[in-house]
Structures are given as structure tokens and as C-alpha cells.
Description:
The structure holds 2 protein chains of 2 kinds.
Chain A: H1 2-17, H2 27-36, E1 41-42, H3 43-53, H4 62-74, E2 78-82, E3 94-97, H5 99-126
Antiparallel strand pairs in A: 1-3, 2-3
Chain B: H1 2-11, H2 15-31, H3 35-55, H4 87-110, H5 130-134, H6 165-170, H7 179-188, E1 200-202, H8 230-235, H9 248-265, H10 269-284, H11 294-309, E2 315-318, H12 332-344, E3 349-355, E4 359-364, H13 370-383, E5 389-393, H14 402-410, E6 418-424, E7 429-434, E8 449-453, H15 460-470, E9 475-478, E10 486-492, E11 497-507, E12 524-525, H16 531-544
Parallel strand pairs in B: 1-10, 4-5, 5-8, 8-9, 9-12
Antiparallel strand pairs in B: 2-11, 3-4, 6-7, 6-11, 10-11
Helix pairs in contact in B: 1-2, 1-3, 9-10, 10-11, 13-14, 14-15
Amino acid sequence: MTQWLGLRYNELRLMKDSVPAFLPLYPATLHILLSLASEDLHGYGIMQEVARQSQGTYKLGPGTLYDNLQKLIRRKVVQELGRRPGDEDPRRRYYRLTSLGRGVLAAETDRLADVVRQARLRLQIAKPRRA
Amino acid sequence: MLRPLYRWVLRLHPSGFRRRFADEMLSIFDHGVGKPAALSLLVDGLVSLARQWALRSEFWHELSPAQEPGADDIPSFYTLDPFRPRAGAVIHGLVMSTALFCLTCFAIRYSWIHILHVNIPVVQIDGAGASAMLERPTVPPRWRDKTPIAVSTAPHSFNASHSAPAAVAIENRAVQVSATHASETLGSESQERAGRLTGLRSATPAPQAPFEPYVGAHVDQPQAPQPKSQGATSAMIPAVAGDVKLDAAERQRVIDGVIANLTKYYVYPDVAQKMADALRVHEKSGDDDAATDGEVFADLLTSQMRDVSHDRYVMMVYSSATEPENPPAPSLEDVSRYRTEMEENNCRFEKVKILPHNIGYLKFNEFPDASICRTTVAAAMASLNHADAIIFDLRDNPGGYANMVALIATYLFDHPTHLNDFYNRSENSTEQSWTQPPVPGNRLADKPAFVLTSPSTFSAAEGFSYDLKMLNRATLVGETTLGRGHMGMGHRIDDHFIIRVPGIRVVNPISKTNWEGTGVEPDVKVKAADALKTAEKLAEKRLQK
Lengths: 131, 545
């Protein structure tokens, strides 16, 4: 009985938290995960990193940022690390990508790569041939 | 103007979101340059306000204690879902669980379910310590052994008032121990720590629980702690020489008892045999004939044994009072007194602070019983949890309980780690000591660690240092420690003579040996007084890499 309950519980968790359940990602979510891929950052750092990655074309407001972080933390994609002593602004908290988060980011990258490949293929087919 | 407005907008957010992110959003607002940026952030805040109230109802009341660690970082429970049961369901659950609890208690008490047939001891509290016999308090392994002798004057001597109940109880023996012996001990072994005499118990029965020095501890009656000062302690040691005159037959009987105990318990059988041979030779050559006084004879045998074994911790003790054959276990009162004492002394944790460069510093002057001081340790380690390196100052630490060694070491590993083995020679058994499962939320497992040592670092404190050194988990800084890697027991020979025999050997699983006699060599040798500064510099260098 216990084993069955344990199995069932695990299955439910897998269904809820498996990587495919997160896809596709919203642009804001994708940019946030991407910015956290290389290092732990605070909220302002994430905003700056997102602006840098998109060369200023995509700007993330704090409302959108923390709304996303709230959801990502709840779903264990991002981990909140807390404040760091000695930071220039003691109000800042740092965030880190969890292993699940890395899996989600990798899966989304693969998915987008596939989309890009498909799109290029279709565009090539649709291109009129020269006589 | 816009900042107060933005703050006001943030204040209007749902409490869960506001508590968690408002400070950070305001921090970002403060980084904004110029009015357009501030206006843009204000609009963003208003959009966020609408979004949180309209679309994020599941986060409205999220308290998220796990994400709001307190200052002490003590782990808390995670809330999986913002679910609140109905009041009716709570009352129903309360009634059902109470009924189930009563039913279980009833079943256990009357044993009508055989599977639950357990023997429940009947506790009788009376003034004669009978309760201690019926319900022996659980006492974890203790590494240090105690003697009333060293209580008096060793430079960093362990004051019996800071010790376990056993020590408090054994302290009464100070009255009975010879003054001659005390002066000898203080002269030749001024570095020795408290306790060369663990529990005093009958030599005849097989050892019952070698890691429980309370077992068989000499407790005539629970008594209030004795005065702590040297003068007072010395005054308690009366001159009892000449109370009992020994004849040849009595000396023969004592020597037989000594040899029997050495042969049975001493950690190294070959050395025990050498001591036995030496005792026989001295006896036959008439060296003992002049010793008609108990204390003189005890000291003579001690020196004869030490001459051969070079073991400072093998010792004969003479008592003018009659030793009981089956001394009772420590009373609940003794345990309670120890608990109170530890609480009053913050479990002998002297300093817990963060040094410059975010280096954690913990100075503690004992390894107290983990079952009593667990909370203090958790609080101390939590306050250092965010340190980038940690320094353990054991320069004034005379040892203590093995379970505390394992508990503190637990914070330095992310998996259970084998620290050492305790080999009991007489039982030919080995007990392993491991760190506990990782502490949730602990961040010190991969941080550089340093241990400060001195010639006063003793027993369990040496064990802690040695284990971490062998595991390459800490850098030892300071001076070589005193060198106490064996644990001994007191064994009753007759009504007046007791022998203390080192019978348990600590064996490190990596080096397959220990630090007995040699002490623990530090990795960085500096004067003990300079150890902290050196360790700080080493930590800084390590953190800069």
C-alpha cells in the first residue's frame, strides 16, 4: 500500500514537474532562465543581463520579472539564495537556476532550434526558383 | 515624488508578493536614472498590481517561510500548497487523532495486541536514587574521562563544575584520593586534563557499556557541586596515609588484581604483559616490601607500570573509604544538574562571530553532550552558515562527548562520513563513529575550514582535529596537541584499590592509528597564541584564489 502510494505520488510529481510540462516558455521566462544559466544574479542583475543578451531589444520590467520569478520558484525551476553580506544594496536577493531549470532551458533551446530549422527549411522551399 | 507613489503601489500588492519582492522592486526603482525611467517603472508597477490581484490569486497569501529565512537560518517547513482546511475538518481530525492516540496507549498498556507488547518501566521517584536504577537516563558515548585530581590545578584544567554529572559525582572521590597522589599527578602531569578515571566499577563483572562512563560511576549520593577553587579542592583532600597498613598478603592480592585487569582490559596485550612481568619482578625482588601505606603502594605500582609502558594514563588509585562493589548509575538529578549547567554556560560555546572577509569563527571549550546541547550547536552553526570560511578554535578545548564531535563535523560534509572507530580491547568489538545526515540548509559543507590547536587541545578535541586532518577537510593551525587517543575505565580491585586502565583505542579509518602519545601535528605550525591570526590570513588567501 505504501509503495503504491509512493509510486502514485511520484508519478503525479513527474507529470506536474517534468520538463515537457514547462514548454514552450514565454519570452520573459526564457530570458530569465538564460540570464541565470551562467551565474547567480539578483533581480536588477537579471534585468541588465536580459537587456544585454537581447542587445536592448527586450526590456524586462520589475513587475514582470518578479511575477515570473514567483512562479519559477514555486515550481522549483529557480532557487532563491537570499541576501549576500557585503552587497552594495542589502535589499537584493540572489537567484540560482536549479538542475530542473537547466533541464527546462536545455529542452526549450532544443525546441527553438528545431523550430528555426523547420522555419529555414520551409522558407527555402517557398523561395521562388530562378529560371 | 514618484518614489513615494511607487512605494504606495507596491504596498497595494497582495501580501505574499509584497513581503517577498517589494524591497527588491524598490531597490531597482532606486537604481533608475531620470524621470522617464521612474515613470516607466511606475507604469510597470501598476500593471504588476493589476496582474497580481487579477491573475495570481494562488500567491495572495503565500507566506513561504522557507524563502524567508530568519536571521539564524534555522530550517523551517515548506508549504506545498496554499491549502487551508475547514475548521470542521480540523476539529474532526483532532478528535480522531486523540481517539487513536488513547486507543494505542490503552493497547500498549494492557498488551492485548501482542505485536505492541512492550515493557513499560514504572517510574518511581524517590530521594534515594532508586529512579536512576529503574530508568537510566540515556547517556551518549563520552570521550573524556574524569578524575577529581586534575580538577585542582592544571593550567587549563577542566573544572568539575563544568562537567557531566558523572564528574560531579566522582568529584566526591577527591576527598578520598591521597594527597601524595595528587601532588604527583600535578607535578609530572600538569598538562593532563581532567579525568584520568572514567567510571569506577567492579573489576569482576564483564564490562557493561564501555562507552558509557556513567555506567558504574561511583555515586554514593547525588550531591551539590563542590567548590571550584583550587584551594577548596585541595582542602577536600585529607591526609589519609596510614589508615590501613598493608601486609605482604594484601599487596600480593592487589598485584594479582592489577595484573588481572591489565591482562583483560589494557589496549595493547603485549604491553600489558610487560607491565605484569615488571610488577612480578618488583614484587619478588622485594621492592614493594616497604610500602605498607595504601597511597604509597598505589603510587609505587603506578610508577612501576609507567616505567615499562610509558603510558601516562595507567594509574592506581587508593581510597581510604570503602568502594562499593556495584556503584549505582547517575541519578536523574545528576543529569538535570548537568543540563542546567550547560544551559547556564551556553554549552561552553565561548565565541561565535563573523570575522573580517566573512570568515566564521567558533570558539568552544568543550564537546558537550549532543543530546543536551544540540539546539545551541544548531544556533551557533546557523549564525555562521553564510560565512565563506570557518575557523574552529579548540585551543582551550579539553574534549568531551564523541556524539558532539560527530554533530559538529556533520556541518562540514554533504554526506555521512566515517570519522573513526572505537576499538574495545576486552570485548574485541569496534564501534564506528559517523557524521550525521546533512543538515538541511547547511552551506558550510564546501567552505574552507581551519582548526586551531594548542598543547591544551585534548581527547575529543584532538579527535575532531585528527579526523578532519585525515579527511583533508580542514587545515590545522597552531601547536601539537597533548596526545590522548585512548579511553580508560576505572576497575575496582578491592575495597580500597582501583586501577584505571586505558581500554578503548580510537582508530582512524584512514591512518589506521591515532594520536595517542604523539598528539595531533598541525599542518601549519605556529605558536598557539598566533594561531588565529595565521588562520585568518590563510583563509583570506584561500578565498582570494
